[in-house]
Amino acid sequence: MPNCPNCDAVINEEDNFCFKCGTPLSESSSQTTPLNTLSLEEKQTNNSYSKNLKVSFTDNAVDKLASFLGDHISGSLSNGSNGSRQITQPQKKSSLLVSDHENIEQSDNIDNDTVIETNVQEISDNDSASNYFEKDGNGVLMQKHSDYKGKSKKAQQERFILVYVWAYNILFQEPVPNKKHLTEAAKKNNIYDSNFTTRLNNISQRYLVTPDDTFKLNPSGSEEVEKIQTEMADKELKGNSYWNSTRKNSNKASRITNEEIEKIDEWIDKNDELIDNFDIGKLNKHLEFAIFALYAITKKLNVENTVKPALAYEYLKKKYTTISVTKKRFGEILAGKNNKKYFEKTPEGLYYLTQEGENIAQELMTEN
User: Fold this and answer.
1) Is residue 153 within 8 Å of residue 240, measured between CB atoms?
2) Is residue 79 in some structural domain?
3) Domain assignment of residue 194, yes or no
4) CB atoms within 10 A of CB 351
5) What is the pLDDT of residues 319-335, one digit of tens each?
6) Which structural domain range is residue 262 located in?
7) How far apart are CA 353 and CA 359, in angstroms?
8) Total number of domains in the chain
9) Which end of the chain offers a freer environment for a tag, N or C, measured as fewer CB atoms within 10 Å?
10) Torsions phi, psi for 209 (to 5 deg)
11) Buried b / exposed e across 15-27, counting CB within 10 Å, b at 16+?
12) How far is residue 138 from each of residues 37, 134, 184, 334, measured CA to CA in Å?
């Protein structure tokens, strides 16, 4: 079979044009043939998606081209000022942040008089989202950058929520599952405090869509994320250093108020069969006392998401009367560098269990 003189592609003797490069193959076809042109350029603020498409084709190919492109083209043909036809496509909308990979390939059904030149460019958000977060293996994203350029801790928390939801929607291709997930993520990323739930509620009303109590960005949320990303790229701009906030007075942190004493009494009065019947005497290590106390308060009783060391110890002491760990040693266990795999600490000095800590606590409960 013959080859195209321009690109060396295999052609048929009766072909008027090369299907690959469009070079005319006969004198009759070398005469200028009016071509219709299609130009498509999409930009989605809602999901940061863009695509450029250029197609040229003859009148004979219009019907077949519409079938060939399928979902890529919807719209009508209208005459352009130069005699060519322009096809316009309405902007494609999506409720999720998605990465779309589409390719238009040449079809054997296209008319011989057709010349198609395509240039489709897809921009994936996956790489962009990965610049801000990475998966921890347990379904939670861990931040790579702590500064969201918020001027206050409140602003930093609100911006964290927005960027987290944006990245989660992309990297997991689904909405954030629930409010508890965002709370746990905030704890693991050390941006949680007692005001976080309020921040989340405010952001949800303004920038999030929450079908079935899941979370994804609305259009305003997408625009806000773009603004945040622009500011985060500015190395000269500095946000509130919430990650450096600590208890200035360690004695104050260990002091228990009358209100907190009442709270502990309420915890003790709560009924839980496993907690009430737990034999505290079977715990042999100081580490096990700390793990059990946090598990009882934050998981079994579920009265707090994070807890102050002094309150956790006081609960343990009042609930079981005799325990073989001192208050000082209890605090040292929680703060110990070797125990970070069991405990997480918020900037306010509150503690909660890691997944590994929870696993050990569950084993203790089972063995008991």
Assistant:
1) yes
2) yes
3) yes
4) 25
5) 998 888 999 999 999 99
6) 250-367
7) 9
8) 3
9) N
10) -105, 130
11) bbbbbbebbbbee
12) 50, 11, 11, 23
